[in-house]
Protein backbone atom coordinates (compact mmCIF):
# COMPACT_ATOMS: atom_id res chain seq x y z
CA UNK A 1 0.00 0.00 0.00
CA UNK A 2 1.39 3.38 -1.01
CA UNK A 3 1.92 5.67 1.95
CA UNK A 4 0.96 9.34 1.60
CA UNK A 5 0.45 12.26 3.90
CA UNK A 6 -3.22 12.91 3.11
CA UNK A 7 -5.47 14.12 5.91
CA UNK A 8 -8.44 11.74 6.08
CA UNK A 9 -11.76 11.38 7.79
CA UNK A 10 -12.12 8.77 10.54
CA UNK A 11 -13.33 6.35 7.86
CA UNK A 12 -10.21 6.91 5.78
CA UNK A 13 -11.48 9.17 3.00
CA UNK A 14 -9.25 12.11 2.01
CA UNK A 15 -10.30 15.55 3.26
CA UNK A 16 -10.47 18.20 0.57
CA UNK A 17 -10.75 21.28 2.81
CA UNK A 18 -9.96 21.39 6.53
CA UNK A 19 -9.98 25.19 6.84
CA UNK A 20 -13.45 26.19 5.62
CA UNK A 21 -16.90 24.84 6.38
CA UNK A 22 -19.24 24.06 3.52
CA UNK A 23 -21.88 26.82 3.39
CA UNK A 24 -24.79 27.96 1.27
CA UNK A 25 -22.94 30.72 -0.50
CA UNK A 26 -20.02 32.68 0.95
CA UNK A 27 -22.17 34.07 3.76
CA UNK A 28 -24.74 31.36 3.98
CA UNK A 29 -25.38 29.01 6.90
CA UNK A 30 -23.38 25.81 7.19
CA UNK A 31 -24.71 22.78 5.36
CA UNK A 32 -25.57 19.55 7.11
CA UNK A 33 -24.01 17.70 4.19
CA UNK A 34 -20.55 18.81 5.37
CA UNK A 35 -20.00 15.46 7.04
CA UNK A 36 -16.34 16.25 7.79
CA UNK A 37 -17.40 19.28 9.84
CA UNK A 38 -20.06 17.28 11.69
CA UNK A 39 -17.64 14.43 12.38
CA UNK A 40 -14.98 16.78 13.76
CA UNK A 41 -17.42 18.57 16.06
CA UNK A 42 -19.14 15.39 17.21
CA UNK A 43 -15.83 13.70 17.99
CA UNK A 44 -14.54 16.81 19.77
CA UNK A 45 -17.61 16.76 22.03
CA UNK A 46 -16.71 13.22 23.03
CA UNK A 47 -12.96 13.56 23.46
CA UNK A 48 -13.19 13.45 27.23
CA UNK A 49 -14.29 10.23 28.83
CA UNK A 50 -15.91 10.79 32.23
CA UNK A 51 -13.18 11.47 34.74
CA UNK A 52 -12.62 8.98 37.54
CA UNK A 53 -14.94 9.54 40.49
CA UNK A 54 -11.84 9.26 42.71
CA UNK A 55 -8.18 9.44 41.70
CA UNK A 56 -9.08 11.71 38.77
CA UNK A 57 -5.78 13.66 38.71
CA UNK A 58 -2.84 11.44 37.98
CA UNK A 59 0.51 10.84 36.29
CA UNK A 60 1.95 7.62 34.93
CA UNK A 61 5.07 5.92 33.62
CA UNK A 62 6.30 2.63 32.20
CA UNK A 63 9.02 0.51 33.74
CA UNK A 64 9.93 -2.96 34.89
CA UNK A 65 9.97 -5.12 37.98
CA UNK A 66 13.00 -7.31 38.72
CA UNK A 67 12.91 -10.17 41.22
CA UNK A 68 15.77 -9.99 43.75
CA UNK A 69 14.75 -12.69 46.23
CA UNK A 70 13.44 -16.24 45.81
CA UNK A 71 10.02 -16.47 47.47
CA UNK A 72 8.66 -19.38 45.43
CA UNK A 73 8.02 -21.33 48.63
CA UNK A 74 5.24 -18.81 49.29
CA UNK A 75 3.76 -18.11 45.83
CA UNK A 76 3.52 -19.81 42.45
CA UNK A 77 3.03 -16.47 40.62
CA UNK A 78 5.10 -16.90 37.45
CA UNK A 79 6.48 -13.34 37.38
CA UNK A 80 8.05 -14.00 40.80
CA UNK A 81 9.44 -17.43 39.83
CA UNK A 82 13.18 -16.70 39.63
CA UNK A 83 15.72 -14.16 40.78
CA UNK A 84 16.66 -11.76 37.99
CA UNK A 85 13.38 -12.13 36.11
CA UNK A 86 12.03 -8.86 34.71
CA UNK A 87 8.37 -8.05 34.07
CA UNK A 88 7.21 -4.89 32.22
CA UNK A 89 4.79 -2.69 34.12
CA UNK A 90 2.88 0.58 34.11
CA UNK A 91 2.33 2.77 37.17
CA UNK A 92 -0.23 5.49 37.78
CA UNK A 93 0.09 7.89 40.73
CA UNK A 94 -2.83 10.11 41.69
CA UNK A 95 -4.54 12.28 44.24
CA UNK A 96 -7.82 10.93 45.62
CA UNK A 97 -10.40 13.68 46.06
CA UNK A 98 -9.57 16.38 43.53
CA UNK A 99 -10.90 16.83 40.03
CA UNK A 100 -8.85 16.32 36.86
CA UNK A 101 -7.68 19.93 36.89
CA UNK A 102 -6.92 20.19 40.61
CA UNK A 103 -3.50 20.92 42.10
CA UNK A 104 -0.95 18.16 42.68
CA UNK A 105 0.35 19.45 45.99
CA UNK A 106 -2.82 19.28 48.10
CA UNK A 107 -3.04 17.36 51.36
CA UNK A 108 -4.51 14.08 50.21
CA UNK A 109 -3.53 10.40 50.04
CA UNK A 110 -1.82 9.42 46.79
CA UNK A 111 -2.95 6.51 44.70
CA UNK A 112 -0.15 4.06 43.89
CA UNK A 113 -1.38 1.62 41.19
CA UNK A 114 0.90 -0.87 39.43
CA UNK A 115 -0.02 -3.01 36.42
CA UNK A 116 2.36 -5.96 35.90
CA UNK A 117 2.20 -7.42 32.37
CA UNK A 118 2.96 -11.03 33.33
CA UNK A 119 3.00 -14.14 31.14
CA UNK A 120 -0.10 -15.38 32.99
CA UNK A 121 -2.09 -12.20 32.41
CA UNK A 122 -2.08 -8.77 33.99
CA UNK A 123 -1.70 -8.35 37.74
CA UNK A 124 -2.87 -5.05 39.24
CA UNK A 125 -1.66 -3.94 42.65
CA UNK A 126 -3.89 -0.96 43.45
CA UNK A 127 -2.89 0.80 46.65
CA UNK A 128 -1.99 4.16 48.17
CA UNK A 129 1.02 5.88 49.68
CA UNK A 130 -0.41 5.04 53.12
CA UNK A 131 -0.56 1.57 54.73
CA UNK A 132 -4.10 2.11 56.06
CA UNK A 133 -7.38 3.74 54.97
CA UNK A 134 -10.13 5.86 56.52
CA UNK A 135 -12.81 3.16 56.58
CA UNK A 136 -12.81 -0.64 56.65
CA UNK A 137 -16.11 -1.57 55.01
CA UNK A 138 -16.95 -0.74 51.38
CA UNK A 139 -20.54 0.07 52.28
CA UNK A 140 -19.29 3.36 53.78
CA UNK A 141 -17.16 4.34 50.77
CA UNK A 142 -19.73 6.37 48.77
CA UNK A 143 -20.62 8.39 51.88
CA UNK A 144 -16.98 8.99 52.72
CA UNK A 145 -16.14 10.19 49.22
CA UNK A 146 -19.18 12.47 49.19
CA UNK A 147 -17.64 14.31 52.15
CA UNK A 148 -14.40 14.79 50.20
CA UNK A 149 -16.16 16.20 47.13
CA UNK A 150 -18.09 19.43 46.72
CA UNK A 151 -21.16 20.48 48.67
CA UNK A 152 -24.24 20.09 46.41
CA UNK A 153 -25.55 23.54 47.35
CA UNK A 154 -22.45 25.74 47.53
CA UNK A 155 -20.26 23.65 45.16
CA UNK A 156 -17.42 24.29 47.61
CA UNK A 157 -15.35 21.89 49.70
CA UNK A 158 -17.07 21.35 53.03
CA UNK A 159 -14.85 20.91 56.14
CA UNK A 160 -17.93 20.43 58.31
CA UNK A 161 -18.96 17.36 56.31
CA UNK A 162 -15.40 15.99 56.39
CA UNK A 163 -14.99 16.22 60.16
CA UNK A 164 -18.59 15.24 60.87
CA UNK A 165 -18.03 11.96 59.03
CA UNK A 166 -14.62 11.34 60.60
CA UNK A 167 -15.87 12.14 64.10
CA UNK A 168 -18.69 9.64 63.63
CA UNK A 169 -16.30 7.06 62.16
CA UNK A 170 -13.58 6.56 64.78
CA UNK A 171 -11.88 3.89 62.63
CA UNK A 172 -10.64 6.80 60.48
CA UNK A 173 -8.35 8.17 63.22
CA UNK A 174 -5.20 6.28 62.16
CA UNK A 175 -5.40 7.48 58.56
CA UNK A 176 -6.40 11.00 59.63
CA UNK A 177 -3.25 11.16 61.75
CA UNK A 178 -1.11 10.11 58.79
CA UNK A 179 -2.89 12.50 56.42
CA UNK A 180 -2.46 15.47 58.73
CA UNK A 181 1.20 14.67 59.42
CA UNK A 182 4.17 15.67 57.26
CA UNK A 183 3.47 12.65 55.05
CA UNK A 184 0.17 14.20 53.93
CA UNK A 185 1.92 16.24 51.23
CA UNK A 186 4.80 14.38 49.53
CA UNK A 187 7.42 16.56 47.88
CA UNK A 188 7.23 14.53 44.67
CA UNK A 189 5.70 11.27 43.50
CA UNK A 190 9.22 9.82 43.55
CA UNK A 191 9.81 10.60 47.21
CA UNK A 192 7.04 8.57 48.82
CA UNK A 193 6.44 4.94 49.73
CA UNK A 194 3.62 2.84 48.28
CA UNK A 195 1.49 0.17 49.90
CA UNK A 196 -0.96 -2.51 48.81
CA UNK A 197 -2.73 -1.50 52.07
CA UNK A 198 -5.05 -4.54 52.06
CA UNK A 199 -4.15 -8.04 53.16
CA UNK A 200 -3.73 -10.47 50.24
CA UNK A 201 -3.03 -14.18 50.06
CA UNK A 202 -0.10 -15.89 48.38
CA UNK A 203 -0.42 -19.56 47.42
CA UNK A 204 2.45 -21.85 46.39
CA UNK A 205 2.58 -24.84 44.01
CA UNK A 206 1.52 -27.16 46.83
CA UNK A 207 -1.61 -25.12 47.52
CA UNK A 208 -0.23 -23.78 50.81
CA UNK A 209 -1.11 -20.21 51.62
CA UNK A 210 0.09 -17.23 53.65
CA UNK A 211 -1.37 -13.78 54.28
CA UNK A 212 0.76 -10.92 52.96
CA UNK A 213 0.99 -7.13 52.85
CA UNK A 214 2.91 -5.18 50.18
CA UNK A 215 5.35 -2.31 50.86
CA UNK A 216 7.07 -0.28 48.12
CA UNK A 217 10.02 1.55 49.69
CA UNK A 218 11.23 4.55 47.71
CA UNK A 219 14.94 4.45 46.93
CA UNK A 220 14.96 8.25 46.52
CA UNK A 221 14.22 8.75 50.22
CA UNK A 222 11.16 10.30 51.83
CA UNK A 223 10.65 14.02 51.24
CA UNK A 224 7.59 16.11 52.07
CA UNK A 225 6.37 19.65 51.43
CA UNK A 226 5.53 22.18 54.13
CA UNK A 227 2.07 23.69 54.20
CA UNK A 228 3.46 26.99 52.95
CA UNK A 229 5.48 25.46 50.12
CA UNK A 230 2.61 23.26 48.96
CA UNK A 231 0.18 26.20 48.87
CA UNK A 232 2.68 28.30 46.94
CA UNK A 233 3.31 25.48 44.47
CA UNK A 234 -0.43 24.85 44.01
CA UNK A 235 -0.78 28.41 42.79
CA UNK A 236 2.38 28.67 40.74
CA UNK A 237 2.56 25.18 39.24
CA UNK A 238 -0.50 23.03 39.99
CA UNK A 239 0.98 20.22 37.84
CA UNK A 240 4.27 20.13 39.74
CA UNK A 241 4.23 16.41 40.60
CA UNK A 242 3.29 15.45 37.06
CA UNK A 243 6.06 17.64 35.66
CA UNK A 244 8.66 16.39 38.14
CA UNK A 245 8.02 12.73 37.33
CA UNK A 246 8.12 13.34 33.58
CA UNK A 247 11.31 15.39 33.72
CA UNK A 248 13.12 12.95 36.01
CA UNK A 249 12.48 10.07 33.62
CA UNK A 250 13.19 12.18 30.55
CA UNK A 251 16.56 13.15 32.05
CA UNK A 252 17.50 9.56 32.83
CA UNK A 253 16.99 9.89 36.59
CA UNK A 254 14.82 6.79 36.79
CA UNK A 255 12.86 6.52 40.07
CA UNK A 256 12.90 3.16 41.80
CA UNK A 257 11.29 1.37 44.72
CA UNK A 258 12.19 -1.79 46.63
CA UNK A 259 9.18 -4.08 46.99
CA UNK A 260 8.91 -5.94 50.29
CA UNK A 261 6.21 -8.06 51.88
CA UNK A 262 5.14 -8.95 55.37
CA UNK A 263 4.17 -12.61 55.64
CA UNK A 264 1.72 -13.98 58.22
CA UNK A 265 0.92 -17.69 58.63
CA UNK A 266 -2.76 -18.34 57.94
CA UNK A 267 -3.46 -19.54 61.48
CA UNK A 268 -2.13 -16.29 63.03
CA UNK A 269 -5.16 -14.43 61.66
CA UNK A 270 -7.26 -15.99 64.43
CA UNK A 271 -5.02 -14.90 67.29
CA UNK A 272 -3.29 -11.65 66.26
CA UNK A 273 -4.01 -8.72 68.54
CA UNK A 274 -5.54 -6.73 65.68
CA UNK A 275 -7.78 -8.11 62.97
CA UNK A 276 -5.28 -8.64 60.11
CA UNK A 277 -7.98 -7.97 57.49
CA UNK A 278 -8.94 -4.56 58.92
CA UNK A 279 -7.44 -2.01 56.49
CA UNK A 280 -7.44 0.70 59.17
CA UNK A 281 -4.71 -1.26 61.00
CA UNK A 282 -1.10 -2.21 60.28
CA UNK A 283 0.84 -5.32 61.21
CA UNK A 284 3.79 -4.63 63.46
CA UNK A 285 7.06 -5.12 61.58
CA UNK A 286 8.49 -6.53 64.81
CA UNK A 287 5.93 -9.33 64.53
CA UNK A 288 6.16 -9.75 60.76
CA UNK A 289 9.39 -8.26 59.39
CA UNK A 290 9.72 -6.91 55.86
CA UNK A 291 11.06 -9.44 53.35
CA UNK A 292 12.51 -8.16 50.10
CA UNK A 293 10.83 -9.34 46.88
CA UNK A 294 12.28 -7.19 44.12
CA UNK A 295 12.83 -3.77 42.64
CA UNK A 296 10.58 -1.54 40.53
CA UNK A 297 12.15 0.97 38.13
CA UNK A 298 10.31 3.56 36.03
CA UNK A 299 12.28 4.32 32.86
CA UNK A 300 9.88 5.43 30.12
CA UNK A 301 7.35 8.23 29.86
CA UNK A 302 4.01 7.78 28.10
CA UNK A 303 3.90 8.83 24.46
CA UNK A 304 0.29 9.97 24.78
CA UNK A 305 -1.30 10.92 28.09
CA UNK A 306 -4.88 10.07 27.17
CA UNK A 307 -4.12 6.72 25.57
CA UNK A 308 -1.87 5.52 28.35
CA UNK A 309 -2.58 7.36 31.61
CA UNK A 310 -6.21 8.43 31.29
CA UNK A 311 -7.39 5.17 29.73
CA UNK A 312 -5.37 2.94 32.04
CA UNK A 313 -7.71 0.85 34.18
CA UNK A 314 -6.72 -0.90 37.41
CA UNK A 315 -8.56 -3.22 39.75
CA UNK A 316 -7.50 -5.25 42.79
CA UNK A 317 -9.55 -8.04 41.20
CA UNK A 318 -7.10 -8.29 38.29
CA UNK A 319 -5.23 -11.29 39.70
CA UNK A 320 -2.89 -14.06 38.51
CA UNK A 321 -2.43 -17.63 39.79
CA UNK A 322 -0.59 -17.65 43.10
CA UNK A 323 -2.14 -14.38 44.35
CA UNK A 324 -5.59 -14.40 45.95
CA UNK A 325 -7.66 -12.00 48.02
CA UNK A 326 -8.54 -11.95 51.72
CA UNK A 327 -11.82 -11.43 53.64
CA UNK A 328 -10.95 -7.72 54.04
CA UNK A 329 -14.39 -6.08 53.74
CA UNK A 330 -13.06 -3.00 52.00
CA UNK A 331 -11.13 -5.10 49.50
CA UNK A 332 -14.17 -7.29 48.83
CA UNK A 333 -16.16 -4.21 47.76
CA UNK A 334 -13.33 -2.91 45.58
CA UNK A 335 -13.21 -6.21 43.67
CA UNK A 336 -16.56 -5.24 42.14
CA UNK A 337 -16.45 -1.45 42.19
CA UNK A 338 -13.21 -0.93 40.26
CA UNK A 339 -14.05 -3.15 37.29
CA UNK A 340 -17.52 -1.65 37.24
CA UNK A 341 -16.16 1.90 37.24
CA UNK A 342 -14.05 1.11 34.18
CA UNK A 343 -16.96 -0.46 32.32
CA UNK A 344 -18.88 2.78 32.87
CA UNK A 345 -16.04 5.21 32.26
CA UNK A 346 -14.05 3.59 29.43
CA UNK A 347 -16.33 0.80 28.20
CA UNK A 348 -17.05 -2.89 28.46
CA UNK A 349 -13.98 -3.67 26.37
CA UNK A 350 -11.51 -1.49 28.30
CA UNK A 351 -9.19 -4.48 28.78
CA UNK A 352 -8.57 -4.53 25.02
CA UNK A 353 -7.02 -1.07 24.89
CA UNK A 354 -3.24 -1.24 24.32
CA UNK A 355 -2.35 0.12 27.78
CA UNK A 356 -4.57 -2.49 29.47
CA UNK A 357 -4.17 -5.41 27.09
CA UNK A 358 -2.34 -8.45 28.51
CA UNK A 359 0.88 -9.49 26.80
CA UNK A 360 -0.31 -13.10 26.62
CA UNK A 361 -3.21 -14.32 24.45
CA UNK A 362 -6.73 -13.76 25.77
CA UNK A 363 -9.20 -16.59 25.15
CA UNK A 364 -12.77 -16.37 26.40
CA UNK A 365 -16.38 -16.24 25.27
CA UNK A 366 -17.04 -12.55 25.86
CA UNK A 367 -18.37 -10.93 22.70
CA UNK A 368 -19.70 -7.63 21.39
CA UNK A 369 -20.09 -4.39 23.36
CA UNK A 370 -19.06 -0.85 22.49
CA UNK A 371 -15.58 -0.33 21.04
CA UNK A 372 -14.97 -3.99 20.26
CA UNK A 373 -12.14 -3.35 17.81
CA UNK A 374 -10.64 -6.80 17.20
CA UNK A 375 -12.34 -9.53 15.13
CA UNK A 376 -14.79 -10.18 18.02
CA UNK A 377 -13.94 -13.87 18.11
CA UNK A 378 -14.53 -14.25 14.40
CA UNK A 379 -16.59 -17.33 13.63
CA UNK A 380 -15.26 -19.38 16.52
CA UNK A 381 -17.43 -21.10 19.08
CA UNK A 382 -19.04 -18.53 21.38
CA UNK A 383 -20.32 -20.56 24.34
CA UNK A 384 -19.05 -23.05 26.91
CA UNK A 385 -19.22 -25.97 27.48
CA UNK A 386 -18.98 -26.90 23.82
CA UNK A 387 -18.01 -29.82 21.58
CA UNK A 388 -15.77 -27.83 19.24
CA UNK A 389 -12.46 -27.55 21.08
CA UNK A 390 -12.96 -24.09 22.56
CA UNK A 391 -10.90 -22.91 25.54
CA UNK A 392 -11.71 -24.67 28.80
CA UNK A 393 -11.09 -24.05 32.49
CA UNK A 394 -7.91 -25.18 34.24
CA UNK A 395 -8.82 -26.48 37.72
CA UNK A 396 -5.22 -26.15 38.94
CA UNK A 397 -5.66 -22.37 38.83
CA UNK A 398 -8.73 -22.20 41.07
CA UNK A 399 -8.34 -19.84 44.02
CA UNK A 400 -7.36 -21.71 47.16
CA UNK A 401 -10.21 -22.49 49.53
CA UNK A 402 -10.41 -21.14 53.05
CA UNK A 403 -13.00 -21.92 55.75
CA UNK A 404 -15.89 -19.57 56.51
CA UNK A 405 -18.50 -19.82 59.26
CA UNK A 406 -21.27 -17.88 60.93
CA UNK A 407 -24.62 -16.37 59.98
CA UNK A 408 -25.31 -14.39 56.83
CA UNK A 409 -25.95 -10.95 58.32
CA UNK A 410 -24.61 -7.41 58.38
CA UNK A 411 -21.89 -7.41 61.02
CA UNK A 412 -19.00 -5.20 62.03
CA UNK A 413 -15.44 -6.30 62.68
CA UNK A 414 -14.95 -7.95 66.06
CA UNK A 415 -12.06 -5.64 66.97
CA UNK A 416 -12.85 -1.99 67.68
CA UNK A 417 -9.62 -0.57 69.08
CA UNK A 418 -9.28 2.50 66.86
CA UNK A 419 -6.92 4.36 69.16
CA UNK A 420 -3.83 2.29 69.99
CA UNK A 421 -2.16 2.46 66.58
CA UNK A 422 -3.00 6.15 66.06
CA UNK A 423 -1.57 6.89 69.51
CA UNK A 424 1.53 4.80 68.83
CA UNK A 425 2.11 6.76 65.62
CA UNK A 426 1.73 10.07 67.48
CA UNK A 427 4.24 8.98 70.13
CA UNK A 428 6.73 7.91 67.45
CA UNK A 429 6.85 11.45 66.07
CA UNK A 430 9.43 14.01 67.12
CA UNK A 431 8.24 17.10 68.96
CA UNK A 432 8.59 19.15 65.77
CA UNK A 433 6.48 16.62 63.83
CA UNK A 434 3.81 16.62 66.54
CA UNK A 435 3.64 20.41 66.50
CA UNK A 436 3.12 20.47 62.73
CA UNK A 437 0.52 17.70 62.97
CA UNK A 438 -1.46 19.61 65.60
CA UNK A 439 -1.20 22.86 63.64
CA UNK A 440 -2.47 21.15 60.48
CA UNK A 441 -5.44 19.61 62.28
CA UNK A 442 -6.33 22.85 64.07
CA UNK A 443 -6.25 24.77 60.79
CA UNK A 444 -8.39 22.11 59.09
CA UNK A 445 -10.97 22.01 61.90
CA UNK A 446 -11.41 25.75 62.49
CA UNK A 447 -13.91 26.18 59.62
CA UNK A 448 -16.17 23.40 60.99
CA UNK A 449 -19.53 25.01 61.72
CA UNK A 450 -20.82 22.89 64.62
CA UNK A 451 -18.99 22.88 67.94
CA UNK A 452 -20.46 19.46 68.66
CA UNK A 453 -18.43 17.98 65.78
CA UNK A 454 -15.19 19.54 67.06
CA UNK A 455 -15.77 18.22 70.57
CA UNK A 456 -16.57 14.73 69.27
CA UNK A 457 -13.42 14.60 67.17
CA UNK A 458 -11.23 15.89 70.00
CA UNK A 459 -12.47 12.99 72.13
CA UNK A 460 -10.96 10.61 69.55
CA UNK A 461 -7.61 12.39 69.56
CA UNK A 462 -7.62 12.35 73.36
CA UNK A 463 -8.32 8.61 73.47
CA UNK A 464 -5.35 8.00 71.17
CA UNK A 465 -3.08 10.08 73.41
CA UNK A 466 -4.09 12.68 76.04
CA UNK A 467 -1.38 15.07 74.84
CA UNK A 468 -2.66 14.73 71.27
CA UNK A 469 -6.22 15.67 72.24
CA UNK A 470 -5.19 18.36 74.72
CA UNK A 471 -3.05 20.26 72.22
CA UNK A 472 -5.75 20.23 69.55
CA UNK A 473 -8.41 21.35 72.03
CA UNK A 474 -6.24 24.26 73.14
CA UNK A 475 -5.46 25.15 69.53
CA UNK A 476 -9.18 25.38 68.84
CA UNK A 477 -9.85 27.29 72.06
CA UNK A 478 -12.02 24.50 73.44
CA UNK A 479 -12.16 22.79 76.82
CA UNK A 480 -9.84 19.85 77.33
CA UNK A 481 -11.83 16.60 77.61
CA UNK A 482 -12.22 15.29 81.15
CA UNK A 483 -12.71 11.69 82.18
CA UNK A 484 -12.53 10.26 78.67
CA UNK A 485 -12.76 6.47 78.60
UniProtKB/TrEMBL annotation:
This is Catalase. Keywords: Heme, Hydrogen peroxide, Iron, Metal-binding, Oxidoreductase, Peroxidase. Belongs to the catalase family. PANTHER family: CATALASE. Heme binds at residue 338. GO terms for biological process: hydrogen peroxide catabolic process; response to hydrogen peroxide. Signal peptide: none annotated. The keyword Iron-sulfur does not apply.
